[in-house]
Task: structure prediction
Amino acid sequence: MEAALLLPILITMMLGIVEMSLYMRDIVSVSSAVRVGSRIASVSAGAGPGTCVASVNPPPCTPASAPAFAQAAANAIQRAGSAMPQTQINSLTIYDANAKGYPQPANNTALTCSYNCVVYVWDTGLGAFRYASGSWNSTSVNACVNDPNETAIGIAMTATHPWITGFFKNSVTINERSVMQFEPLPSAGCLPGAHL
Result:
C-alpha cells in the first residue's frame, strides 16, 4: 500500500530532475556558445566585409553588406559544438550593442534589430549557420582604444528547449546574449572609415 502511494511521487520527482537537468544543459550550452562567438568577433574588427561569391565561397557565406566578423562568430559557434542539438537553435544575431547590451539604437532594451545587425539561422541540410538577413557596414566599426564611442559587439542566440514529459508545457524558449568591446586596431586604422 505504501509503495503504491509513494511510487508515483518518486517517479514524478525523478522525471522532474531529468527534465530540469536537460533544461540547465541547454541554458549552459547557449550561454557558452554566445561567449565563444563574441570572443571571436571582438578580435576581428578589421576583417572587412563578407566574401560571399558563390563560385569561390559556396553558401553558407555572408554577403559584402555584412561584416566578415559575423560569419567568423557563426563559424566559431558551429565548430565549438554543443551538448544541445543544433536543430534546437532558432537564430543567431550579431549586432552593434548599445550601452545596455542590446542592439542599437541607444534606448532599445529588446533583442530587436533595426540596423547594424546580422541574423543567421541553423540550416540542417548544410549542417551550418546560414546568413538569413541584415546588414552592417564593416567600415563603421570604431575599434580605437579608450575611445568613448568604441563599438561593442553583441551576440544573441535563441533556442527552443523541448520538454520530454510535457509536465511544464511542450517547450520553452532560451535567450542568451554576450557583449564585448572590439579589440583595438592600430591607431592609424581604428576609426570608422579607416579600415576595411
Observations:
- The chain has a mean pLDDT of 87.
- Residues 2-42 form the longest helix (41 residues).
